[in-house]
Amino acid sequence: MRFTTLFHVLAALALTTPAGAQAPTLVRDFFPGSSGAFVNHGRPYGFRVHDGKLLLFANDGLSLGKLFQLDDLSGNVQELAHVGGALGYTTTNGGLITSGDNIYFFAQQEGSVNDILWRVSNGSVQALDTIPYQVLFYFTGIPLPGGRLIYPGSDPDHGYEPWITDGTPGGTHRLKDINSGTATSLGTPFPLFQGFDFGGKAYFLASDGTNGPQLWCSDGTEAGTSQFAVINEAGAAGAVALRYSRNDERFIVGGLAGVIGSDGTPANTGVIHAAQYGFPHMAGLTYPEAGGDDWMYFSALEDQWKLYRTRGTEATTELVVAGIPNLGYTNLTALNGKLYTLTADNEHVFLVGIDPAAQASAIVKTFEPDPLSGPNAGAFYGFRNDGQRFYFMGKEGSHARQYWQSDGTLDGTRMVHEFMPSVLNGGPDAADGNMIIFQGAFVFAANDADVGLELWAGSGVAGIAAVGSTDARVDVRCSGDGYLQVQSLEGAIRSVRVMDATGRTVLQQGGTDNDRMRIVAQQPAGIYLVQVTTTTGTATVRVFIP
Q1: I want to staple 28 with a disulfide (CB 3.0 to 4.6 A). Which of 137, 316, 324, 455 is the partner?
Q2: Class at the top of the CATH hierarchy for domain 470-545
């Protein structure tokens, strides 16, 4: 393999990474090589932590939509399935649903408009059910004990109804024909299966054709599937949404007369806060982080819109802050006893901190509009929270959309890194902006000019280390005959280490106590890191082998 001149990117990173911050780490380059934002890119998405491991879909070369598992952030992956990428959005995150040892997802059938429910477990991949094509706003599945899953299935004689599987074809069947005949029980004009698990049972929105869309409960058997509570008018139709939140003891749902709380028994189910409208913030969807406590949050319309928190009973319900926007704060997270949210006016986007004890709020940071395109409200989404700081997507001024982090202070609110500053979605792509907390690190998909849309993590993790320096100053170049030429600008060279995109060491050589080394380094095309240790410190340089 013939090398071209290696390029040193430290200066560029110094321009794009805030002072005192370390550049993010490239965890895995699934599809090596790129001549732009999306030419060759892995496009990792569908992030889900399961059994302490990270599951995601990515393109591996020209093989699209493989399911991978990462045990840690070393960059090494295990391929679990290659049957196409996950479809739809679920409240569990990105299309993957896990139950016991079973991993479930929907993928489009090859050469067809139909969708297939797949199960992956213990090295086996199996198709469980084919679902006739019909526009579903999003798929979802509700896990039950024993690795079971309730999901929206269909057959010609019964339409769309709740189905259940135990992960085997023989154990996959219709749970109950709630709306008898060919009519669907999952909403009109398009089926929309919405629900959650609590106390070993599934709770979901369904209509028997007479009582309207109400809250149903199931233990996974036909006899144990029945209407649980009335939460909507009998004549409600169209895109009726089920809004809920839960902790370990109780759950809340939006209802006709306000917010309904329950411990999972009809006797202890009732209105805990009366309001004209009550909208719980949904953990895993509109309220991605629980904040480390058992508070549940909801917005209610009274004389004005107000934000409340509750532990699921009337006695534990208390006001957080009044005068909030219509329908409340879509994105909400908790850190060090305070809440944080994103809101906007006609010009600016604001990161707002809320003190529930004082029932007061204050602006943490104002994001200025783009001077050319105006307000950036549509570019914001969040949050993910590692207990020390929270992360979100955002856009300030003429900068492209990027990932941001905050510790709740103005000085601690900054871009994680400015990826692709000239691209509309410089860091996260609009359709594939995935982020998650895994093993204490912020892990995300982002666009980079050198590698395309790949998997990254915050500083201080393993994998292909962040380009940087601890006092050492080095220069790395290539000769035209395939030799790597390393020069220390201060001190003697102690060792040189070359790592591939998985973090695996592919070349390592000790120094000669001189300030120059010449190494034969022939490797497949891709991005590599050259780590040089000298008597003054260590420097890491990103390189490209064509």
Answers
A1: 455
A2: mainly beta
